[in-house]
């Protein structure tokens, strides 16, 4: 009998893109792994690539926009059944282009209070909690007085 293969561990940069007090979420398509789950745009780090460079490349490939990569949020690791993912989140702003769905099924620009309503990829939940906490401390662009 074959030994169990080692569970893959992937490293993924993800962009929390803010504009006008809203944050962009992207819905995975029916044909992707984790179909219809919501996530932040981004993808796997290539060999030797910084997370920031990865994000600029991936967001251009996925949504046809340029972004400015800003502050890093805490890195989070999550073990799915089939693989483990470490997410490297950065707060970003759009730079140029028009959001175009190249891989995703949909995007939504969410107010902070709408974010947790969506069905997110599980690994994103601690990222969103941390992001919302820093926004409510006034670190984000938000609508706080
Ligand atoms: N981009 C992104 N991926 C995420 C998030 N949360 C999360 O669990 N993931 C997972 C989904 C994917 O399995 C993986 C990212 O891989 P990817 O974007 O390069 O590739 P993919 O989904 O097409 O998967 P693959 O077939 O190439 O393995 O990380 C997130 O917020 N953003």
UniProtKB/TrEMBL annotation:
Source taxon at top rank: Bacteria
Reaction catalysis annotation: 8-oxo-GTP + H2O = 8-oxo-GMP + diphosphate + H(+); 8-oxo-dGTP + H2O = 8-oxo-dGMP + diphosphate + H(+)
GO molecular function: 8-oxo-7,8-dihydrodeoxyguanosine triphosphate pyrophosphatase activity; 8-oxo-7,8-dihydroguanosine triphosphate pyrophosphatase activity; 8-oxo-dGDP phosphatase activity; 8-oxo-GDP phosphatase activity; metal ion binding
Family label: Belongs to the Nudix hydrolase family.
Enzyme's top EC category: hydrolase
Annotated SUPFAM superfamilies: Nudix
Gene3D superfamilies with a match to the protein in the record: Nucleoside Triphosphate Pyrophosphohydrolase (3.90.79.10)
UniProt domain Nudix hydrolase: residue ranges: 7-132
EC number: 3.6.1.55
UniProt protein name: 8-oxo-dGTP diphosphatase
Pfam families documented for this protein: NUDIX (PF00293)
PANTHER family hit by this protein: 8-OXO-DGTP DIPHOSPHATASE, NUDIX HYDROLASE FAMILY PROTEIN
Keyword set includes Magnesium: yes
Cofactor needs: Mg(2+)
Keywords: DNA damage, DNA repair, DNA replication, Hydrolase, Magnesium, Metal-binding, Mutator protein
One BP term from GO: DNA replication
